[in-house]
């Protein structure tokens, strides 16, 4: 998912929308409920705390098990500038919030990266704990709400195979949608 919905058009490639990413995660979980799903958010790009909490809720609503939250660091002068260096206490608060929502695991901190200790986590928490189970399937009501926001969708393909057509995805890159996003920044 990478960033909050409002900033997605500025941070991510045009072909990757916020809702599209959520629906792809939901489709993966629906296609294989035993699959552990993971995504990440970069913080420090100008998002509000409320936007971060909303993204954490959205991601959880589509059945994601593992979330990483890390500080965006500008790799070169050609990339987006850092708007804020997020305090570690704020990362801790977001981690606590996410765990309360039912994530299996959350790594959060200024130096956390999207693959942060993923293998270590899996071994220690999922294999070692016989009671550990993936998150439940996506919230069907929330998925329907997301789909309704983006009625023109293309089917999700994974390795060339079409997934459930009920959970296809798209991004709205119409002139009207882009104008609306630019007004919010």
Structure described in brief:
The protein is an alpha/beta fold. The protein contains 7 helices and 5 strands; from the N terminus they run H-H-E-H-E-H-E-H-H-E-E-H. Helix 2 packs antiparallel against helix 6.
What structural keywords apply?
185 residues; 11% strand; 40% helix; alpha/beta
Topology, element by element:
Elements: H1 8-11, H2 18-31, E1 38-43, H3 49-61, E2 66-71, H4 88-100, E3 105-109, H5 118-127, H6 140-149, E4 157-158, E5 161-162, H7 175-184
Parallel strand pairs: 1-2, 2-3
Antiparallel strand pairs: 4-5
Helix pairs in contact: 2-6
How would you sum up this structure, described in words?
- With 185 residues, the protein is of the alpha/beta class.
- Helix content is 40%, strand content 11%.
- It contains seven helices and five strands; from the N terminus they run ααβαβαβααββα.
- A three-stranded parallel beta sheet has the order 1-2-3, with helices on one face. A two-stranded antiparallel sheet has the order 4-5.
- A hairpin with a 2-residue loop joins β4 (157-158) and β5.
- α2 runs antiparallel to α6.
- It is globular, with a radius of gyration of 16 Å.
- It starts with 7 loop residues before the first helix and ends with a helix.
């Amino acid at each position: 998912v990478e960033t909050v919905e409002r900033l997605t058009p500025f941070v991510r490639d045009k072909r990757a929308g916020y809702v599209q990413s959520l629906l792809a995660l939901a489709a993966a979980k629906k296609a294989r409920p035993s699959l552990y799903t993971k995504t990440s958010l970069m913080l420090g790009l100008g998002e509000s705390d409320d936007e971060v909490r909303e993204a954490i809720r959205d991601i959880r609503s589509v059945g994601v098990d593992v979330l990483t939250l890390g500080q965006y660091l500008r790799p070169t002068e050609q990339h987006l500038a850092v708007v804020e260096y997020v305090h570690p206490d704020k990362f801790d608060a977001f981690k606590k919030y996410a765990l309360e929502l039912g994530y299996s695991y959350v790594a959060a901190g200024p130096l956390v990266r999207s693959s942060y200790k993923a293998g270590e986590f899996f071994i220690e928490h999922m294999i070692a704990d016989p009671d550990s189970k993936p998150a439940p399937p996506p919230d069907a009501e929330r998925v329907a709400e997301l789909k309704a926001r983006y009625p023109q969708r293309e089917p999700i393909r994974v390795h060339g195979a079409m997934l459930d057509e009920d959970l296809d995805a798209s991004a709205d890159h119409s002139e009207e949608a882009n104008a609306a996003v630019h007004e919010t920044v």
